[in-house]
Structure formats: C-alpha cells, structure tokens
Design brief:
Blueprint lengths: L11 H16 L4 E2 L24 H4 L8 H12 L8 E4 L2 H11 L4 E5 L4 H9 L3 E5 L2 H13 L8 E5 L8 E2 L2 H13 L3 E4 L14 H6 L4 E6 L12 E4 L3 H14 L5 H12 L1 H27 L12 E2 L3 E4 L3 H6 L2 E2 L1 E2 L9 H4 L2 E4 L4 H13 L1
Parallel strand pairs: 1-12, 3-4, 3-5, 5-7, 7-8
Antiparallel strand pairs: 2-9, 6-10, 8-9, 11-14, 13-14
Helix pairs in contact: 3-10, 4-5, 6-7, 10-11
The structure holds pyridoxal-5'-phosphate.
The site of pyridoxal-5'-phosphate has 13 residues, from α4.
Length: 378
C-alpha cells in the first residue's frame, strides 16, 4: 500500500493530554487540566433548549442542505452580521478546523503567514495541503514587509494570505480593535487574503459586536468561525466560513459536497435554537458571563503572583482563554498542573521560551487557585 505522506506530525497537545490522563489513572490523584483548549469554567446549560428540538422532524432525520440549513445560515447572518450579509455568503462546516482547511485547499497561494506564536494546527494544515507558511513578528512589521514585497519586481503578484487569531491562541492577548481593523483594511488593499480566524472573540461579545459588519466590505477577507469555544460545544463539530467571493463560494460548495455531504443536522438544529430562541440566547449569555468571570479571576491571580510573561502583553491585553506563564511544562506537571510548553507554539527555540508554558485559564477559580497556591507554597 503506497501512502501519500504529508510529513505532518500528530498533535503534541493531544499526546500531552493522554500522558497526564495516564498519570492521573496510575496515581489516583487529581490533576488540573490546563493543557486543553476548551472552556471549562462551566458547561453550557442546555436543559431548557433540548425540549425545543423536535427529533422526529425531517430537518434532523434526512440529509441537510449542502451549505447548511437556511435557518442556521440566516441566524448567523443576524447574529454576526446584523442581517447585512446573505445566506449565500455563509457555509456551515464541521468545526473550525475544517473551516480553515477548506480555503487553504481552494485558494491558489504562495505563502500563508501567521504570528510567531501560533496555533500549531495552522502549520500542520498548510503542510498537509502542500502550502508554504511563514511567521511574522507583529502586524505592523508584517504590513511593512508586504509593502516591500508588493513593490519588488517579482512580488507584485505573489499570492499571500494571513491567518489572524484575536484573542490569540496561544498567547490569549487581545489587540485593540481599531488598530486590528485598520491593519486588516491595509492588507486587504495590498491584495492579501485575510483569514479572520478568531473563534475566541465571541466569548467576550454578543450580536452587538460590529467587527463582522466592518469586515463584510473587504473582498479579500474570509471569516472562519467555530461554535466550539463561544458556546462550549466542541463536541458538536460545527463552524462556518463566510466569504463574499462568488467563485470561492461555488468551489467551496463542491468541496463540501464531495468531502462531507452535509454537516450533522442535529448540531445545526441545536445551534439554530441557541441563536434564535429566548431560551437559547439566555443559555449562551449565561455560559459566556460565567466563563468570562472565571477567566478574569484566574488572570488576575496570575498577575498578582507575577506569573504572566509580561513582555508578551505589552501592546495588548491578556483576556484568555489562554495565557503564557513563566513556569515550564515540567515544573507545572510536578505540581499536577497540565500545560503545554511554549516550544510547541513557536519556531523560536530560545532558552527563555523553554521556561514558558501555555495554560488554559478557563477553569473554575477556586480549583485553579488551590492548585497554584499549593505550588507557590513550595
Ligand atoms: C485559533 C483556532 N482556530 C480554530 C480552531 C478550531 O476549532 P474547532 O474545535 O471548531 O475545530 C481552534 C481550536 O482550538 C483554534 O484554537
């Protein structure tokens, strides 16, 4: 059997999780799983929402429309774009990972760029799809570099894309919105495809967030989204892609059909009910409120104990759901705290970076505090 090997390696984060789980089973002791990428301050309470779903309906029992149900796409148009986009621009995907992978397959690209501290899957997706990737120091430097490329003899037509994640995974920092929007506008004008991949943003915002409407006017922007983080529903595997480009959407429709043949109808119905009914909206808003409260308390604790890597937060604000702290993965594990070493999120293999780790701060505060208090006592 001859295999077309991509050369990409399996996720180290999944491996670290399995190792900690094994240690927990072997010792019978409790561990704090801050290595994961999910909101765990509280689950979303679906008890008032489930009765609203008719499991006998054909909406759930038969193939869903290829791009997703009109009801869900319409709900997304209202919730994200204040009704200013169109269901034609929105395609439902099975999660955010697929929402990034499909455009990377479809677009003709020379290089995809992302920030120097990046979610490892960005690089792996590019590698699997045979697309070059590179990193940049910060957005201002990147825009200047693109201007130089665009003014060079062979750079004018270079097919460049950038993946932007804000709040960022792994740093958990948030850029100033006005600054970020201006940067995206400049990149759009420089003919750079901008993937706005910010699934953590909605945790902190509701339908009044105006950024998505502003992005609508920019033809080179593709929004890749997920309900895994803002609704805590990573198990449902559901997200979406938004683009105003007709040719792109036509090819996407074809790839969705032959790659997936539709996205799970139950998950689509569930998200529709969460976005459109009073019970659903309340469940989402309660989930976000509790989550943000927990994030803030945990980040405050880290600040008070000088555990944040301050230099990563100089021109931005730490908001979560991740933060980078100045204690190594090994040291944290000695105190039964799971984390992921920052070496997995950057190509910079400096001594300093080996002493940092990414932790997920989306866990109940009392539990977080008790593990860190114990560690700091030693
Ligand atoms: C920056 C970023 N984009 C996209 C995703 C993908 O989300 P999903 O779980 O829906 O595949 C993640 C998940 O961790 C992420 O961190």
């Amino acid at each position: 059997m001859k295999i077309n090997k991509s050369g990409a390696t399996f996720s180290s984060i999944v491996g670290i999780g399995a190792k900690i789980k094994k240690m927990m089973d072997e010792t019978g002791e409790e561990y704090l799983f801050l290595n994961r990428g999910i909101n765990a301050v509280c689950p979303i309470d679906l008890s008032k929402v489930i009765p609203l779903i008719d499991f006998n309906s054909t909406n759930i029992q038969v193939y869903p429309p290829n791009k997703g149900t009109v009801g869900l796409r319409d709900a997304i148009n209202n919730d994200y774009f204040d009704g200013n986009s169109s269901v034609e621009n929105i395609s439902i995907t099975s999660g955010g990972m697929t929402a990034i992978d499909l455009p990377i397959q479809i677009l003709d690209l020379d290089t995809v760029y992302f920030s120097k501290y990046y979610w490892g899957s960005y690089a792996k997706i590019c590698q699997v799809r045979g697309v070059n990737w590179a990193t940049f120091h910060n957005l201002t430097d990147f825009i200047n570099d693109v201007k130089v490329i665009r003014n060079s003899v062979d750079g004018a037509d270079k097919k460049i894309a950038v993946l932007l994640c804000d709040p960022n995974n792994p740093v958990g920092n948030k850029l100033d919105d006005a600054f970020m929007l201006e940067a995206i506008k400049e990149l759009n004008a420089l003919n750079v495809i901008v993937f706005f991949d910010s699934p953590y943003r909605k945790i902190f915002n509701d339908h009044t967030d105006t950024i998505y409407v502003a992005l609508l006017k920019l033809e080179n922007v593709i929004i890749t989204e997920s309900f895994s983080k803002s609704m805590g529903l990573s198990g449902q595997r559901i997200g979406f892609i938004h683009s105003t480009n007709k040719d792109f959407n036509e090819e996407l429709n074809i790839r969705l059909l032959y790659g997936f043949n539709g996205v799970n109808a139950f998950a689509q119905e569930l998200i529709t009910v969460l976005l459109t009914t009073e019970e659903g909206k309340k469940a989402v808003s309660d989930f976000k409120k509790n989550t943000v409260e927990g994030l803030q308390k945990n980040i405050q604790y880290l600040k008070e104990h000088n555990l944040l890597v301050e230099k990563l937060y100089q021109n931005s604000t730490p908001v979560g759901i991740f933060t980078v702290i100045n204690i190594s993965e090994e040291e944290l594990l000695r105190h039964k705290i799971g984390s992921v070493g920052m070496v997995y999120f950057t190509n910079e293999k400096t001594e300093e970076v080996t002493q940092w780790s990414r932790i997920c701060v989306s866990v109940p505060h009392q539990k977080f505090k008790s593990f860190f208090d114990k560690m700091l006592m030693h």
